[in-house]
């Protein structure tokens, strides 16, 4: 895949999230907002609001529109903001992927960790609404005993 194709795929995925969010909030689609989203996908790497404003200058998009769009993209789960200290504190934004929702099973005996992809649990958690809270991503750790340790325990008990 070329760089342009990767950017286009990223944009299509982000746009799908945006459309679903806009529909759920009964908002109107906006051409300018989508132009900002395209710039986000071109920047891709963690970026600051200032960097996005600069990237949108060529399209003559106002600073206010960029900031409003940023907030909306975070609310829609397209971007997540992290505060990183680099000389000064500035919020950096980066595209959120489904990989941000982490589920792991951990053996309390041997410490073995396995990543699991439980679609039903993933769906349950990501579609929950908590009052006064906007979920960005989640981590779930499930503790127990792995197959190997369980077998060893059973042998020891014999
Ligand atoms: Zn184990």
Summarize the structure.
With about 160 residues, the chain is of the alpha+beta class. It contains six helices and six strands; from the N terminus they run H-H-E-H-H-E-E-E-E-H-E-H. The strands form two sheets. Strands 1-3-2 form a three-stranded antiparallel beta sheet. The chain has a three-stranded mixed beta sheet with strand order 5-4-6, with no helix packed on it.
The N- and C-terminal alpha carbons lie at a distance of 57 Å
Enumerate the strands of the largest sheet in spatial order, edge to edge or round the barrel: 1-3-2
* CATH level 1 name of the largest domain: Mainly Alpha
Bound molecules: zinc ion
- What is the H/E order? HHEHHEEEEHEH
Biggest sheet record: 3 strands, antiparallel
Q: What is the name of the CATH architecture of the largest domain?
A: Orthogonal Bundle
Tell the overall outline: elongated
Q: Low-confidence parts, pLDDT < 50 over ≥5 residues? A: none
Share of helix, binned: 40-55%
Strand residue content = 15-25%
